[in-house]
Amino acid sequence: MSEIFDERRKALEEEYFRRKEQEALEKLRAKLRDQAATAQLPPCPKCDGRLIETEFEKIKIDQCSRCGGVWLDPGELQQLMAREEQGWLSRLWHSLAPEKG
To answer: Residue 60: which of 76, 44, 46 has the closest Cα?
Structure first.
């Protein structure tokens, strides 16, 4: 009778370790997919992070995954300033812009 219990215990052990191996493989596959997706992103100009496109006030901007820096493509700053014509950002931009003469 103990042989039946030993066989059952071995079968349960094998099933447990098989599930653990499957979980480990899935985690590894997910990590590899994330790394592959990250490798396709453009590099951050400041550090060795990657730029992830995010949306801010319906404008797509790039933010670094490592340092958190925000990078704007041509025209995005003007789009943000146009939305806030009397805001501090617009006033700062106009104070720094050279006067046309």
So the answer is: 76
